[in-house]
Amino acid sequence: MTLDELRRRLDDGSGLALVDVRTPLEFDGSAGAHCDPRHGHIPGAVNVPLERILDCRSAGEVRALVGLPEGTEVVAYCHVGTRSGFAVQVLTGAGYVARNYPGSWHEWSREVAEA
After folding, report:
1. Count of CA atoms in the C-beta half-sphere (13 A) of 75
2. What pTM does this model have?
3. Which of 52, 48, 42, 55 is nearest to 10 (CA)?
4. Separation between Cα atoms, residue 90 and residue 70, nearest integer Å
5. What one-character DSSP code corresponds to residue 53?
6. Phi-psi region of 51 (alpha: psi -120 to 50; beta: other; left: phi over 0)
Protein backbone atom coordinates (compact mmCIF):
# COMPACT_ATOMS: atom_id res chain seq x y z
CA MET A 1 0.00 0.00 0.00
CA THR A 2 1.29 3.43 -0.89
CA LEU A 3 1.03 6.62 1.11
CA ASP A 4 -1.52 8.08 -1.33
CA GLU A 5 -3.67 4.96 -1.24
CA LEU A 6 -3.56 4.85 2.55
CA ARG A 7 -4.63 8.50 2.80
CA ARG A 8 -7.58 7.85 0.47
CA ARG A 9 -8.62 4.65 2.22
CA LEU A 10 -8.52 6.17 5.69
CA ASP A 11 -11.07 8.74 4.59
CA ASP A 12 -13.39 6.55 2.50
CA GLY A 13 -15.29 4.81 5.31
CA SER A 14 -14.44 1.35 3.96
CA GLY A 15 -13.58 -0.08 7.37
CA LEU A 16 -9.89 -0.46 6.68
CA ALA A 17 -8.11 -1.39 9.92
CA LEU A 18 -4.60 -0.18 10.73
CA VAL A 19 -2.35 -2.35 12.87
CA ASP A 20 0.85 -0.79 14.19
CA VAL A 21 3.23 -3.63 15.04
CA ARG A 22 5.87 -1.47 16.73
CA THR A 23 6.52 -1.48 20.46
CA PRO A 24 4.09 0.33 22.78
CA LEU A 25 6.70 3.04 23.40
CA GLU A 26 7.08 3.65 19.66
CA PHE A 27 3.31 3.70 19.28
CA ASP A 28 2.70 6.25 22.03
CA GLY A 29 5.59 8.44 20.92
CA SER A 30 7.74 7.95 24.03
CA ALA A 31 10.44 6.34 21.91
CA GLY A 32 11.28 6.32 18.26
CA ALA A 33 13.97 6.65 15.66
CA HIS A 34 15.99 9.85 15.65
CA CYS A 35 15.59 10.03 11.87
CA ASP A 36 11.84 10.71 12.15
CA PRO A 37 10.68 14.32 12.46
CA ARG A 38 8.02 13.32 14.99
CA HIS A 39 6.90 10.26 16.92
CA GLY A 40 3.54 8.66 17.54
CA HIS A 41 1.19 6.65 15.37
CA ILE A 42 -1.19 6.95 12.44
CA PRO A 43 -4.62 8.09 13.68
CA GLY A 44 -7.02 5.18 14.13
CA ALA A 45 -4.30 2.53 14.39
CA VAL A 46 -4.29 -0.14 17.06
CA ASN A 47 -1.02 -1.26 18.59
CA VAL A 48 -0.34 -4.99 18.37
CA PRO A 49 3.42 -5.50 18.75
CA LEU A 50 4.97 -8.03 16.39
CA GLU A 51 6.47 -9.96 19.30
CA ARG A 52 2.99 -10.63 20.67
CA ILE A 53 1.71 -11.66 17.23
CA LEU A 54 4.59 -14.11 16.84
CA ASP A 55 3.87 -15.60 20.27
CA CYS A 56 0.43 -16.75 19.08
CA ARG A 57 0.09 -20.46 18.38
CA SER A 58 -3.10 -20.45 16.31
CA ALA A 59 -5.15 -18.30 13.97
CA GLY A 60 -7.73 -17.95 16.74
CA GLU A 61 -5.12 -16.59 19.13
CA VAL A 62 -4.05 -14.03 16.52
CA ARG A 63 -7.64 -12.92 15.97
CA ALA A 64 -8.24 -12.66 19.72
CA LEU A 65 -5.08 -10.56 20.10
CA VAL A 66 -5.86 -8.24 17.18
CA GLY A 67 -9.52 -7.98 18.14
CA LEU A 68 -10.91 -7.84 14.60
CA PRO A 69 -13.18 -10.38 12.91
CA GLU A 70 -11.78 -12.78 10.35
CA GLY A 71 -11.95 -11.33 6.84
CA THR A 72 -11.29 -7.75 7.96
CA GLU A 73 -9.07 -5.75 5.60
CA VAL A 74 -5.96 -4.87 7.58
CA VAL A 75 -2.93 -2.73 6.77
CA ALA A 76 0.09 -3.34 8.97
CA TYR A 77 2.90 -0.87 9.49
CA CYS A 78 5.97 -0.43 11.66
CA HIS A 79 8.94 1.91 11.27
CA VAL A 80 10.17 1.00 7.78
CA GLY A 81 8.01 -1.95 6.71
CA THR A 82 10.14 -4.87 7.85
CA ARG A 83 8.31 -5.97 11.02
CA SER A 84 4.99 -5.29 9.34
CA GLY A 85 6.01 -7.52 6.43
CA PHE A 86 6.33 -10.43 8.86
CA ALA A 87 3.06 -9.47 10.53
CA VAL A 88 1.21 -9.50 7.20
CA GLN A 89 2.15 -13.15 6.70
CA VAL A 90 0.77 -14.10 10.11
CA LEU A 91 -2.33 -11.93 9.75
CA THR A 92 -3.09 -13.45 6.36
CA GLY A 93 -2.75 -16.92 7.87
CA ALA A 94 -5.22 -15.87 10.58
CA GLY A 95 -7.86 -15.05 7.97
CA TYR A 96 -7.36 -11.33 7.47
CA VAL A 97 -7.04 -9.59 4.12
CA ALA A 98 -3.68 -8.13 5.10
CA ARG A 99 -1.34 -5.75 3.32
CA ASN A 100 1.88 -4.05 4.26
CA TYR A 101 2.47 -0.31 4.22
CA PRO A 102 6.20 -0.40 3.40
CA GLY A 103 6.73 3.33 3.92
CA SER A 104 5.38 2.88 7.44
CA TRP A 105 5.95 5.48 10.16
CA HIS A 106 9.22 6.62 8.56
CA GLU A 107 7.29 7.92 5.54
CA TRP A 108 4.09 8.98 7.33
CA SER A 109 5.94 11.12 9.88
CA ARG A 110 7.47 13.16 7.05
CA GLU A 111 4.60 13.49 4.59
CA VAL A 112 1.43 13.86 6.60
CA ALA A 113 0.95 17.05 8.60
CA GLU A 114 -1.49 15.66 11.16
CA ALA A 115 -0.18 12.33 12.45
Report:
1. 22
2. 0.92
3. 42
4. 13
5. H
6. alpha
Q: 63 in helix, strand or coil?
A: helix
pLDDT, tens only, 20-73: 999 999 999 999 889 999 999 999 999 999 999 999 999 999 999 999 999 999
Q: In Å, what is the CA distance from 47 to each residue of 4, 20, 91?
A: 22, 5, 14
User: Which residues pair with residue 100 across a beta bridge?
Assistant: 76
Q: What's the number of domains the chain is made of?
A: 1
HSE of 13 in the Cβ direction (CA atoms, 13 Å)?
0
* CB of 39 closer than 8 Å to CB of 64: no
Considering only CA atoms, which of 88, 82, 96, 104 is closest in space to residue 2?
A: 104
The CATH number linked to 26 is 3.40.250.10
Query: Residue 85, exposed/middle/buried by CB under 10 A (0-12, 13-18, 19+)?
Result: middle
Residue 74 belongs to what domain range?
3-111
